[in-house]
Amino acid sequence: MQAARAHSLMRMAGGVQVVQSLLQARILALNASYFLKAGGHLVISIKANCMDSTVPADAVFESEVKKMVQEQLKPSEQVTLEPFERDHPCVVGGYRMPKKQKVVA
């Protein structure tokens, strides 16, 4: 589903558990806000060379993860796809995750 058609698709979807995106954290955040249920999960593949080939790949990754945090997404793990894909990590995380309750002993 695309964020551009989100309003017409929201009624049909009713909320999903996982949202996946390629490249941009901004698009992932839009799709998460439109479709993802609270406590849902997200996956983004960041292909650094397609986004900005003039800066080091690590700088692109760091920038996209910062954008995710600014958009209230909670990245939890980053996995590199090397040796199959160079400069192309996958980031997984959550959206509107419930707060953990403190355990009283």
Automatic annotation (TrEMBL):
Keywords: Methyltransferase, RNA-binding, rRNA processing, Transferase
Cellular component annotations (GO), alphabetically ordered: box C/D methylation guide snoRNP complex; small-subunit processome
Record flagged with keyword RNA-binding: yes
Highest taxon of the lineage: Eukaryota
UniProt entry tagged with the keyword Calcium: no
InterPro entries, A to Z: Fibrillarin (IPR000692), SAM-dependent_MTases_sf (IPR029063)
Pfam family, one: Fibrillarin
GO biological process, one term: box C/D sno(s)RNA 3'-end processing
A molecular function (GO) term: RNA binding
Family, as annotated: Belongs to the methyltransferase superfamily. Fibrillarin family.
Stored PANTHER family: RRNA 2'-O-METHYLTRANSFERASE FIBRILLARIN 1-RELATED (PTHR10335:SF0), RRNA 2-O-METHYLTRANSFERASE FIBRILLARIN (PTHR10335)
Protein's name in the database: Fibrillarin
Source species of the chain: Salix udensis
Lineage: Eukaryota, Viridiplantae, Streptophyta, Embryophyta, Tracheophyta
